[in-house]
Fold each of these.
Amino acid sequence: MSADFSTRTRAESSPRLVRLGVVIGALLLAASAGQACRAVAARSAARSELATRQADLAELRRRLGPLERPSSPEATLRRQVELTARASPPRVLADLATLVPPGAALDRVVLDYTDELGLELRVEARTPADYDRLLEALRSSDRLKGVLPGPETREGDLTATVTAVYRPGGQP
Amino acid sequence: MALLGVRTAIAIDASGVAGGTFPRGRSAAEPTERVRVALPEGALEPSATETNLVRPAEVKAALLDLLERLGRPTRVVAVLPLGIGRLALLQPALGAEPRDFARFRLGPSLPFAVREAVIDTVPTGGGGVLAGAVRRTVVAEFEDLVASCGVELARVDLAPLAALAARQRERPAEALDVFLGDRAYALALHEAGALRAFRCRRRAPGGGDVERIAETLRATARESGRAVTPRVLVFGESSGAVAAGLTAQGFAASSGSDGALLGAAA
């Protein structure tokens, strides 16, 4: 520890080691600043990407909203009327008739008009092969989707229940 | 050139200005270069209250010559001469800030108002401090002198505080040091790694100087209860002659390194 009898305040000395330290510090600072700039740029890009994604999500929600909202009775009735007009029972039965192969027959058809037209088909087939050909024809039709074979019995002829959804406008 | 550069210290006294350059990173090292430029008689007279630079132009010329020979340093530590201030060994009260305590103790004994004093201390071991008080206007005289030579002052030290502090770091078990100035000398008794006694006296250049120093040494040894006077180390200009004179007086005396006086300050 050294005494100092100076009467004036002076700046601290800057010996070479200190200056070297300052230079190294400046270089580290510059490197850190570069890294910080890159980090800021990356963060900015990420923010931009996030904003885009959030906008997309908002748009999807906006479009999904009406679909998620419970339908009002009037709207349901209107859709049922429209659906009945586009898929009248005679037309549906006619379309189904074209799909039934030889050896199979439709014993009963239940039409359920809600937001879409659900079908419950009670079918009879002479052999399992005839039943398989009927299922294949139903599944390959553009007019039907969600074809699900239900319970089947084999008492003499093969009897089974098949559910499906009718799509108006598709190819039989 | 030293890896970390060099420090430069200059010492100003009545008979001349001396300076040395020292490698950084080593305390109290021998100077890589030491230069002394004599001053005309009476150009500078160390005084605690009066003007020190009696003929400032001559002192400035000598200082410029010295700086030129030292390679034109831009920044120096200036060591002001013995005799311009009051020095005292103090034992600060527990918890007291040494500088405040020194101001409290030295204030009443100063030949000028304490508010005019610049006071500082250096530790001397065992909790003690060596305190120095110099009149502000006196310090300013030397500061102006150095500034007029185009050199920045890193620090202003007072002989022989820095050298004493350096000696304390060596923790001498038992020693008597004599620090010679042109107009005054200081005597320090080291014991068990601490400074036990300190005296500052005017010199008697006309004759009987060595006898006076010898008598002060004996008195100090007596007061410390010693039957045998410790070995004496003499620092400063003409230390060899004084050491020889003390040896003739019966002391085990030798000359210390003059460079150490500057090196400790640098």
Note: The first strand of chain B starts at residue 6 and ends at 12.
Amino acid sequence: MHSTRSTIFFVLVMTTVVALVLAFLFNGLKGTHERNEIVYNKKAILSAIENELGESISDMSDDRAEEIFSTKIKQTVVTVAGDEVEESYIENRYKGGKAENIDLKKEKKLDEDEKILPVFEFNTDSGEKYYIASVRGSGLWDDIWGYIALEDDLNTIAGVAFGHKGETPGLGAEIKDNEDWKSQFKGKKLYDENGDWKSVYVRKGGAKNPIHEVDGISGATITADGVTEMLDRGLKYYESYFKTLQG
Amino acid sequence: MGELANIFIKSAFIENLALAYFLGMCSYLAVSKTVKTAFGLGLAVIFVLGITMPINWIISEYLLSENGIFGMDLTFLRLILFISVIASMVQLVEMVVEKFSPSLYNSLGIFLPLITVNCAILGGSLFMVSKEYNFSESVAFGLGGGFGWFLAIIAIAAIREKIQYSAVPGPLRGLGMAFLLTGLMGMAFMSLMGIDPGAFNG
Amino acid sequence: MSQLKELEKKEASFAFGKKERKLLTDPLNDNNPITVQVLGICSALAVTTLLDKAIVMSIAVVFVCAFSNLIISVLRRSIPKSVRMIVQLVAIAFLVTVVELVLKAVNYPIYVELSVFIGLIITNCIIMGRLEAFAMANGPWKSFLDGIGNGIGYGIILIIVAAIRELFGKGSLLGYQVLGDWYTPNGLMVLFPSAMFVIGILIWIHRSWNRSLIDVS
């Protein structure tokens, strides 16, 4: 039979050993965890221009992703008003001070005049330029987000990549997994011939306008509507900045 | 208030812990042979979920996060603390049930302490962390999730009671049938997806 | 010592004697954790949408089951009765946290996909079940083997279900396209309820093959 004292002793020893081992492991691996998360995000951004890169993102090594990012991608951070933001200002809000460190989830909660937006400018070896914008919205269950790559006319979509927190596999999750559906976005334009803002509409039942619409996803109407809303609102935030680039 | 009602409805019907995520299956399949035991277990689950969620939320926010009283990121202790809280709460519930309804205590037998390892309970707390709910949202989520689980287990118990008298092929009888039934119920619940609870609040 | 006793003694001390092998093979058939004992199904379902997720999950479960069995077996005579359950739970939670931290460092994308379900290994009834039924009453090496056996028995079912769901749901296995363009993926396979159907049918097959398991209720 065990006395109360030996029971307490046993519990204390066990708790201490467990806590110490885990603390040790956690601190030891923290650096790796953070780097993994950064590379994961970088690969997500690169998947918007997977075709233009000519390399497969899923097979890509972490080092290669970092290399592409540091040599071919220029990072800028802007406000909705169109002004560039200093690295020191970003550093205050996000450790690292670069576009890649911005957490759009936090930005979503801020008002337009307080938001900062990341812009990733991709320069290919043959001298082409692409601009990747970051957007975030709501799906059926939880948040969804996207990286939209635009050609240097800042009007035509070159590629897209979407992610989600908890959409249903086979339904809402198709925005991430279904390559055929995503490839529809290539070539769509954000502005019509008159220069008016149209964005891209995900139409249930099939696209009607070949320039500004894509087909919906069966069984995932709410997620699809979330994508439409996210593009319309999220890309519009970049309008002022894009005008400064064109003007 | 409307937002909380939303979360309650969502976790009870649309994101039903048993039929959409298939959590808590062990007890679900084992205790659903009669409606009576299913009812008792379901109530216990609602109670445990409703209590452990807020407690785990407080632990996560105030003890383990960097903004908490220790000022350090202690999230690696989360699993251990959550499961300890759940185990303690279940023991509490056990004592209460034994005192107030000895007959229920006896008919539930080992399944009462087994609530501790019911994936739905720990799963609920982990989902709450991943969805970053605030305090009142966690309570709504806990009660709603429990209620949904309760409905699911009563429903399948009712069906299984009836099916006992049907001619099911030998190797499929009992367990195999329960799996297929649960799968069908899961599909039925999927039809509820896409309902925006907000629509009912006008 | 007589010849017979000497033989028995040899058998008992040989690490991979008949009894030990049985610990590894039993859970694969007669005592399969999922199809017979019906344990640990919860995480099984969300995790079997893709084969690589199922494989990682199986490895994690084998690890946690084997080592928690080992730890509890070593401590079995020292654990005070009043805190038995909590000690078991903490041991399991400890190992699962280790798995989580290591996975996050070694394969971040799969860690993100499995998310909540790694933590749910704690509530996997198989692990608790083996601790109570075996590790509390047997030596460390045997308990370790029992843990591996049950972990593998569980893992095999997981892998079979995942292989079926990924193959028919997406036409691929481990991400590699196996079925050509002629195959229209069966969307149902990707949704959760299909896991229930597949397991139900597996049980049907298992019991038809091993008639001794038919439920006479």
Note: The radius of gyration of chain B is 18 Å.
